[in-house]
Amino acid sequence: MLNVPSQSFPAPSSQQRAASGGRSKVPLKQGRSLMDWIRLTKSGKDLTGLKGRLIEVTEEELRKHNKKDDCWICIRGYVYNVSPYMEYHPGGEDELMRAAGSDGTDLFDEVHRWVNYESMLKECLVGRMAIKPAVPKDYHEEKRVLNGMLPKTQVAGTLAKEGPNSPSYDWFQTDFLVTIVIYTKQKEMGLDSVIVDHQDDSFRAETLIKDYSYFIHIGLSHEVEEDFSVRVVENVGKIEIVLKKKENISWKCLGHPLEKHNLLILKKDTGLYYRKCQLVSKEDVTHDTKLFCLMLPPSTHLQVPVGHHVYLKVTITGTEIVKPYTPVSYSLFSEFKEPDLPNNKYIYFLIKIYPAGLLTPELDHLQIGDFVSVSGPEGNFKKSRLQELEDLFLVAAGTGFTPMVKILNYALSNIPSLRKLKLMFFNKTEDDIIWRNQLEKLAFKDKRFDVEYVLSAPTSEWNGKQGHISPALLSGFLKRSFEKSRVLLCICGPTPFIEQGIIRAGAPQEPVELTAVSPAVCQAWCYQCGHGCHWDSWSHCLTPLACCLPPCSGPVSIIPSSQTQVAA
Ligand code: HEM
């Protein structure tokens, strides 16, 4: 019997609750959309009550401003008067009030780290906290030049004892090449574990190691060509970045350290780094959904791991708006062999355009050749969860299909044990089904794959399944290919879809039995970031519910039998 999570799932203290489950958008009053907020901030109105003066704020002073009509919040050492924003906050006034008169940094980061508050609240800035909060040891401390000795990694902030072994780096040169080598001492490293950006003389490599990022950030001492190559020696976790010298001279040092250089920092404390990507093509996929192709800058190496998302940032009348999106592959048939092609320069997004929204019409109006800022990848979905799977069930609603694309591609091409991969795809009408032709061709071509559509508002000609997600629909769908097969279930859709359909509807009556197989079930979660009338599109960040139960490799016996087993 597959028990889907009870109402107390995810666990109240879990990361998932903090990050997405349990949070919801509130209906905002007429005239309180994001665009209205942007207009207000541009109106020249004094939004702080300080007539543009910036002040130093003591903790005592901050605490006094804790009422709705006089509410200050400190984020990363800066204090904002958020009272004017109250009615515009998509999470509602009460949520914002949780941080009233205090340092809301952690709370803010738990809920929506990506939200660009600095840009959105710049007219609300009251000043800085008088006592600066402790900051990580900064890079200025590394005074010496980088001369090729293995420098000892500095660990920023409060690195937990259980953090990864400190990585290190080294470099060497030939007449024509400079090779930077990063020793991660980790086994599960791939080409998608390192993101490299090289602009002018600034060289930045961010290596993703579990929940941490390790940075090499250097102002190079000499010029190099735009293109470079990245190699990963997977079994020892060694990453080599090979740069081509512009001049055939011997370098005395690699360069000088820049921000965060040689630091290992918890990912959640690192902030998002963006690079400008050029729109190469935009194709209609359905009546309201388009496939956008963005080209990475020539001197960027970035591959988004399966099940991870990035943030797109556009500036709308001077305010930066950020939303998460999960990249897809070009089509369901694109090759998905590891390692990915090194010259993988394109990122594809399936984006539904909401005419009344703000971000998506802006994206829709982009011309070929225009630029959009794209962040590095985020997410905690692990490809290793797919290894040795026998049955993979994907349940998606609308553009919740997007994280499924790469999972599907990857699983069919790379998991030899896979026997069955089923997608249950919920939409309103037939016209809303993304890549229907491709899905059907794939089902025809690969007998392991099967797709079922469920429509909530079909025409009278529709003779397929209809309705909303329910135990009855799920129980018919979640049939494993043989007893005790290794199963993974991923679900992505707006929060109500997940909550109403899976959590509230309870367990399907007679589905599959899940015993102490590890990994058993991984419920994946979608950050809901914009359904409703004021924001664009909820989007599609596949994040497994990793937190409320021990890692799947841990003892399964402590998992209550009434709860779904959840893979970390
Ligand atoms: C520190 C206390 C805060 C709390 C507890 C909080 C809570 C929330 C919650 C629960 C949501 C709904 C999330 C969802 O399901 O999409 C939300 C959305 C949002 N909040 Fe806050 N918030 C806080 C501060 C702020 C601040 C200071 C800003 C400043 C700009 C802000 C901007 C936003 C935006 C833009 C969204 C919509 C996010 C999206 O979907 O893209 N929040 N917030």
The whole-number mean of residue pLDDT values reads: 77
Shape: globular
Strand content: 25-35%
CATH architecture of the largest domain: 3-Layer(aba) Sandwich
Rg computed from alpha carbons, rounded to a whole number of angstroms: 24 Å
Structural class: alpha+beta
Distance between the termini: 21 Å
Put simply, the count of helices is 11
Number of strands: 30
How much helicity do the residues have?
10-25%
Task: Outline the structure in words.
It is a single chain. By secondary structure, the chain is of the alpha+beta class. The chain has four domains: 34-129, Roll (Flavocytochrome B2, Chain A, domain 1), CATH 3.10.120; 143-261, Immunoglobulin-like, CATH 2.60.40.790; 275-375, Elongation Factor Tu (Ef-tu), domain 3 (Beta Barrel); 380-558, Rossmann fold (3-Layer(aba) Sandwich), CATH 3.40.50. It has eleven helices and 30 strands. The strands form six sheets. Strands 7, 10, 11, 12, 15, 16 and 19 form a seven-stranded mixed β-sheet that branches. Strands 1, 2, 3, 4, 5 and 6 form a six-stranded mixed β-sheet that branches. A six-stranded antiparallel β-sheet has the order 21-20-23-17-18-22. A hairpin with a 3-residue loop joins strand 8 (168-173) and strand 9 (177-183). Mean pLDDT is 77; it is low at 1-23, 136-151, 157-161, 336-342 and 503-568. It catalyses: 2 Fe(III)-[cytochrome b5] + NADH = 2 Fe(II)-[cytochrome b5] + NAD(+) + H(+). Residues 54-130 form the Cytochrome b5 heme-binding domain. NADH-cytochrome b5 reductase involved in endoplasmic reticulum stress response pathway. Plays a critical role in protecting pancreatic beta-cells against oxidant stress, possibly by protecting the cell from excess buildup of reactive oxygen species (ROS). Belongs to the flavoprotein pyridine nucleotide cytochrome reductase family. Residues 1-27 are annotated as: Disordered.
